[in-house]
């Protein structure tokens, strides 16, 4: 029997956001015009049966994301549900400890993850993050301080860093 997966959508300063979640964890977050379709697709790929009724967790997520964009929230109460290799999961958990408004380089995150020579691998892992914002891969920069890459686009990364006050407008 498939697990129940739920979906919320909200408009933000980044455009449309779709969040896939289960009763007690965030599974995926997509940004942009196709966020709704991508959220459904990700949940299905991960083996969830999409439930169209609302769930109390969705109300919390929607409220917390709005508060985040208003600059009133720095952390989220619903934890992420990671899917990946043990090293990927370890890096994402380490990433979650990078404080709001702070940035690290890929090399610094690799070192904090116990593999100081794995900056390139860490960059690839950031690109596979299914839960941006909540798992804050936007806080990871290139060694020279430039933005580096971002799966949702560099304009979105820049806006997220601006929301957190770690990048001048």
Describe the structure.
By secondary structure, the chain is α/β, with parallel strands linked by helices. The chain has 2 domains: 3-69, Methylated DNA-protein cysteine methyltransferase domain (Double Stranded RNA Binding Domain), CATH 3.30.160; 86-163, Orthogonal Bundle (Arc Repressor Mutant, subunit A). Helices cover 36% and strands 20% of the residues. The strands form 2 sheets. It has a 4-stranded mixed beta sheet, with helices on both faces. Strands 5-6 form a two-stranded parallel ribbon. β1 and β2 form a beta hairpin. α4 (106-112) crosses α5. The longest helix has 14 residues, at 56-69. It is globular, with a radius of gyration of 15 Å. 33% of the residues are buried. The model has no long low-confidence stretch (mean pLDDT 95).
Quick description:
The protein is of the alpha/beta class. The chain contains six helices and six strands. It has a four-stranded mixed sheet with strand order 3-2-1-4, sandwiched between helices. Strands 5-6 form a two-stranded parallel sheet.
